[in-house]
Amino acid sequence: MITKICCIGAGYVGGPTMAVIAQKCPNIQVTVVDLNVERIQAWNDDNTNNIPIYEPGLPQIVTEVRGENLFFSTEVDKAIDEAQIIFISVNTPTKTYGKGKGMAADLKYIELCARQIAKVAKSDKIVVEKSTLPVRTAEAIKSILDSTGNGVQFQILSNPEFLAEGTAIEDLLNPDRILIGGDTSVEGQKAIQALVDVYSNWVRPEKILTTNVWSSELSKLTANAFLAQRISSINAMSELCEKTGADVNEVAKAIGMDSRIGPKFLKASVGFGGSCFQKDILNLVYIAKSYGLNEVADYWEQVIIMNEHQKNRFSSNIVKTLYNTVADKKIAFLGWAFKKDTNDTRESAAIFVANDLINEQAKIMVYDPKVSRKKILSDLNYLETRMPEENENSIVTFDNPYLTCEKAHAIAILTEWDEFRKYDWQKIYKSMQKPAFIFDGRNILNKAELEEIGFIYRGIGV
Ligand code: NAD
Ligand code: UDX
């Protein structure tokens, strides 16, 4: 019987996933640990609206189970020692140095976890890869864990997470599937069953898929590559639509009604962001190359190339439409997060569009309901395009959308927050410089209505 679970990594995956496990498994004590003291303090904040991740429905669950059977702590060793199942949910970013720089996944945090577990564990453990990892990482983890020679037995499972940010709680409560990969040995199968039993508390058996470890690891990269590929495919079509008078929304609807294609993930946009798609595809490309599979690598790399093009195209379009210069012009950004209902900005298209426009000496006014000025500046500074002071001077942030748009030459919609649809666009129009332009990077506003008001409207693929 599993009674104690530990999760290393209290991030966008570890936090929500463990909160749901704790809620659905009242007999299991779940401890989420992290080296980041500030992050753990925020998870323990008395007011659950201050937890470090904005995710609809999450504060309610944390309120319900925190202090009951869900704990957030920095005592990594203690949690490892006590747990029967240890989830590794640490970040696996793209390497920024050395071999595979800019492509391969940086596995240093994963290796640190494995070494920590090997050092601390005194009883047998099931170690679960929750992080997204290159195929065959379990082999490396196993070799580290088995190196101590102290007789402790480890089983490594791969249990990738498919939640999307902004809908994480819904995705965790009603997953399309739970994927668990494990060793084909008797002990491996026993470990798989232990994890199946945990999920069976709320997930129906037909939704729990068990495979070998390598299939599970590779399925996660494959799923993200396929999802991102759909976006790059529709974005490629959006450019053709703009040249031909076709409307990408109509094209998406028409093809999505084919049950073999399906309607989801066909929204043309300013380009996909988020911490996963680019990182995981680059990793897939790197893996393919490392096996000498150059055609496979080139095929998937095109998804990223198309996405870069879509982001660049959006900023160039703004410059071109504003009479080829945005120098000293005010461009109001509505949205900075990479999608709605999250405070996460990793790889957000907004960062790259802002960077391009600052290169053209524009002034960027930003409003995002969940992203702070500090975060916006640190996102830009991370690109190292210019001195931090220049970014400071080029970005003005607001907590009111109407003030953001006042005297602006153009508005750019970067995130599809629902509230943007409900604004008083007449009022906004009045306060702007004329002609007043809107560049709707998410196709969320009503073109006809805005044109009626007087705006010059530019959507994606329309
Ligand atoms: P994150 O950066 O939000 O969280 C990772 C946490 O791990 C950080 O708080 C960090 O301090 C902590 N950490 C790193 N090394 C540690 C160590 N040795 N000991 C203790 N704590 C440590 O990352 P995330 O978005 O939660 O992603 C985690 C993994 O899940 C990644 O592999 C990612 O690819 C994958 N994933 C992410 C999503 C998503 O939507 N964000 C979805 C599915 C899968
Ligand atoms: C993704 C996967 O969906 C999820 O299964 C995986 O576990 C983690 O990576 P996430 O990045 O959180 O989730 O959000 P997602 O909804 O996939 O959106 C990613 C990006 O694609 C966002 O910038 C979003 O705006 C964009 N997108 C999505 C589009 O441009 N068009 C679409 O049709 C869908």
Automatic annotation (TrEMBL):
<feature type="binding site">
    <location>
        <begin position="161"/>
        <end position="165"/>
    </location>
    <ligand>
        <name>substrate</name>
    </ligand>
</feature>
<dbReference type="InterPro" id="IPR008927">
    <property type="entry name" value="6-PGluconate_DH-like_C_sf"/>
</dbReference>
<dbReference type="Pfam" id="PF03721">
    <property type="entry name" value="UDPG_MGDP_dh_N"/>
</dbReference>
<feature type="active site" description="Nucleophile">
    <location>
        <position position="276"/>
    </location>
</feature>
<feature type="domain" description="UDP-glucose/GDP-mannose dehydrogenase C-terminal">
    <location>
        <begin position="332"/>
        <end position="447"/>
    </location>
</feature>
<feature type="binding site">
    <location>
        <begin position="276"/>
        <end position="279"/>
    </location>
    <ligand>
        <name>NAD(+)</name>
    </ligand>
</feature>
<comment type="function">
    <text>Catalyzes the conversion of UDP-glucose into UDP-glucuronate, one of the precursors of teichuronic acid.</text>
</comment>
<keyword id="KW-0520">NAD</keyword>
<feature type="binding site">
    <location>
        <begin position="338"/>
        <end position="339"/>
    </location>
    <ligand>
        <name>substrate</name>
    </ligand>
</feature>
<feature type="binding site">
    <location>
        <begin position="9"/>
        <end position="14"/>
    </location>
    <ligand>
        <name>NAD(+)</name>
    </ligand>
</feature>
<feature type="binding site">
    <location>
        <begin position="220"/>
        <end position="224"/>
    </location>
    <ligand>
        <name>substrate</name>
    </ligand>
</feature>
<dbReference type="GO" id="GO:0051287">
    <property type="term" value="F:NAD binding"/>
</dbReference>
<keyword id="KW-0560">Oxidoreductase</keyword>
<dbReference type="InterPro" id="IPR014027">
    <property type="entry name" value="UDP-Glc/GDP-Man_DH_C"/>
</dbReference>
<dbReference type="Pfam" id="PF00984">
    <property type="entry name" value="UDPG_MGDP_dh"/>
</dbReference>
<dbReference type="InterPro" id="IPR036291">
    <property type="entry name" value="NAD(P)-bd_dom_sf"/>
</dbReference>
<dbReference type="InterPro" id="IPR014026">
    <property type="entry name" value="UDP-Glc/GDP-Man_DH_dimer"/>
</dbReference>
<feature type="binding site">
    <location>
        <position position="34"/>
    </location>
    <ligand>
        <name>NAD(+)</name>
    </ligand>
</feature>
<feature type="binding site">
    <location>
        <begin position="90"/>
        <end position="94"/>
    </location>
    <ligand>
        <name>NAD(+)</name>
    </ligand>
</feature>
<feature type="binding site">
    <location>
        <position position="39"/>
    </location>
    <ligand>
        <name>NAD(+)</name>
    </ligand>
</feature>
<feature type="binding site">
    <location>
        <begin position="267"/>
        <end position="273"/>
    </location>
    <ligand>
        <name>substrate</name>
    </ligand>
</feature>
<dbReference type="InterPro" id="IPR036220">
    <property type="entry name" value="UDP-Glc/GDP-Man_DH_C_sf"/>
</dbReference>
<dbReference type="Pfam" id="PF03720">
    <property type="entry name" value="UDPG_MGDP_dh_C"/>
</dbReference>
<feature type="binding site">
    <location>
        <position position="165"/>
    </location>
    <ligand>
        <name>NAD(+)</name>
    </ligand>
</feature>
<feature type="binding site">
    <location>
        <position position="260"/>
    </location>
    <ligand>
        <name>substrate</name>
    </ligand>
</feature>
<feature type="binding site">
    <location>
        <position position="442"/>
    </location>
    <ligand>
        <name>substrate</name>
    </ligand>
</feature>
<feature type="binding site">
    <location>
        <begin position="131"/>
        <end position="132"/>
    </location>
    <ligand>
        <name>NAD(+)</name>
    </ligand>
</feature>
<dbReference type="GO" id="GO:0003979">
    <property type="term" value="F:UDP-glucose 6-dehydrogenase activity"/>
</dbReference>
<dbReference type="InterPro" id="IPR001732">
    <property type="entry name" value="UDP-Glc/GDP-Man_DH_N"/>
</dbReference>
<dbReference type="InterPro" id="IPR028356">
    <property type="entry name" value="UDPglc_DH_euk"/>
</dbReference>
<comment type="pathway">
    <text>Nucleotide-sugar biosynthesis; UDP-alpha-D-glucuronate biosynthesis; UDP-alpha-D-glucuronate from UDP-alpha-D-glucose: step 1/1.</text>
</comment>
<feature type="binding site">
    <location>
        <position position="346"/>
    </location>
    <ligand>
        <name>NAD(+)</name>
    </ligand>
</feature>
<protein>
    <recommendedName>
        <fullName>UDP-glucose 6-dehydrogenase</fullName>
        <ecNumber>1.1.1.22</ecNumber>
    </recommendedName>
</protein>
<comment type="similarity">
    <text>Belongs to the UDP-glucose/GDP-mannose dehydrogenase family.</text>
</comment>
<dbReference type="InterPro" id="IPR017476">
    <property type="entry name" value="UDP-Glc/GDP-Man"/>
</dbReference>
<dbReference type="GO" id="GO:0006024">
    <property type="term" value="P:glycosaminoglycan biosynthetic process"/>
</dbReference>
